[in-house]
Amino acid sequence: MGTLRDLQYALQEKIEELRQRDALIDELELELDQKDELIQKLQNELDKYRSVIKPATQQVHKASALQEQHRTKRQAISGEPTAFDIHELSHVTLPFYPKSPQSKGLIKEAILDNDFMKNLELSQIQEIVDCMYPVEYATDSCIIKEGDVGSLVYVMEDGKVEVTKESMKLCTMGPGKVFGELAILYNCTRTATVKTLTNVKLWAIDRQCFQTIMMRTGLIKHAEYMEFLKSVPTFQGLSEEILSKLADVMEETHYGDGEYIIRQGARGDTFFIISKGKVNVTREDSSNDMPVYLRGLGKGDWFGEKALQGQTQETECNAVLL
């Protein structure tokens, strides 16, 4: 059995251990509060993006409704005038800057790696790649200054930059990274400063060009979706307004060769219209459990319409390599 002095020493150790734990808990709680604040700020930024990146057609319908009611309202993206006529947009000539296959691949991968741009359609990404022009900065140059009004987004091809906010370093970035994307998604001031650490080579696109791409591809896609929907017997009795709303919520999905899109017997919740490629339709033979080929489908064909009525799939569909 220990002496009183030993017990007092052990008690002091426990008290000190508890004090350190309390201090650690206080520190972690403070860090948690800071992270909660950061999450809220990021959520606010995300809400801004979502308020801007809407299907272009939703803006078209809203603008048309307001014109009918003889009211005016500012555009969500910016105060700059925006054309809504698909025929006018179709004749807009976008700039084109030649690039090596390596540069094209780097820009595309950078966009697909960016949280706010990776969900763009491949056709939109391709136009963005074509429209980007080269920019170079020397070492210790300021590319973006916090608080300035921005209108360009950049993709780094060569070099290294440092990102700071309120004079505090956030990170460094190298080739294959997108920065400044907030400027083309939302008309606001720069949220951070970007300075070069070396000589850098960049590719840039301005907000007006980006918005033209988004608006044009959105309207073209909407027109295509409307034609598809009108060709589906199930929807031929629906009004233009309802068809237009259906077209607004349609999403483009990609499948690889041989990949199953729907399976026989599964309860579906998705209706498909083929925009590109071919699909094989099969039904399982109950006698030998082997799939029996029924027909092939191509661009403009549809399947899975019974899923909208909550019915199970009677056949299987899988993608076919062209």
TrEMBL record:
Q: Which residues cross the membrane?
A: none
Q: Which Pfam families match?
A: cNMP_binding (PF00027), PKcGMP_CC (PF16808)
Q: Which domain of life is it from?
A: Eukaryota
**CDD domains, alphabetized:** CAP_ED, DD_cGKI-beta
- List where this protein forms a coiled coil: 11-59
Q: Name one GO molecular function term.
A: cGMP-dependent protein kinase activity
Residues in Cyclic nucleotide-binding domain copies: 116-231, 234-308
The protein in question is named Protein kinase cGMP-dependent 1
